From TrEMBL:
Record protein name field: Permease
Keyword Transmembrane belongs to the record: yes
Top-rank lineage group of the source organism: Bacteria
Stored Pfam families: PGAP1 (PF07819)
Gene3D superfamilies per record: alpha/beta hydrolase (3.40.50.1820)
Signal peptide as annotated in the record: none
Regions that span the bilayer: 34-55
Amino acid sequence: MNGRLQRLTSLFRWIVGPLLALWAGSHWNPWVGLALLALFVAGPPLAMLPHFLVLRFIPPAPGLPTAPLGDLLQAWWREVVVVTKVFHWQQPWAEHREPDFLPPAEQARGRRGIVFLHGYSCNRGLWNGWMKALRARGTPFIALTQEPAFGSIDRYAPQVDAAMRALHERTGLAPLIVAHSMGGLSARAWWRSQGHPFDRIHRILTLGTPHHGTLLAKLGTTENARQMRGDSEWLNELARQEPPQVASHFDCLYGHCDQIVFPAETAVLPGARALHLPARGHLQLVFEPQAFDRALALLEETAEMNTAQRVSRAG
């Protein structure tokens, strides 16, 4: 569904919009046409700018300074580039360009796989760059488009479970989950639906996930947006039902220039390993080389290493 909506949006911005501007310029006034053209081309990037500038007035996360203006402007421009790429090409037109990679059992055995979970209003095309690179490495993966796009996060659990089982059965190893934004909550909801079995999951790498909600979700009206509000009963219940050792299975990448998930500390689970990335917007976290490198490092971690880390933190 979200792919179709994004195709319509992309067509309107880049084809219908300029044609309307051309028609208005020729039938009314050239300046009107130019103004409309500027609105379609430059309007969305300029509309994003206040989302970054407001972070100057958000109390910083513990241990972090307030985001410098230069970092915010840098993050804004990077975000403009990746948002244009993702929402006007990868997701609307190339959602299935990179198919899931499940090599024959004799090749996949012993090679830990990855399940990819996208965020709100996105689809599996978000991970095209990751999937291409992992296929070249021979790493098995499954990338989901979570449907319904605007339903309850709990409804994604069966899709996640099917992907986790398929990779586990093919490789013989519990998969790694890599999740952006809402996808991290999908991972937690799936794990809850299974009773938090530790043998089903290797680790979960979240990129800008609103683990404790985000202020921006107060503007959302869809069911999954309401669930991501910081004071939502859904988030509170999710946290109450998790055993204490759950967080030790998480790596949380976050940044204080994230214009979607803020305050910044909401993207970190207490007890998880955390990595702060400066001057990066929300979607840019997916395209950050450190995120991909962290995923590769997690694939090489053994179950024994994870167990030792949990015991150390418990002590």
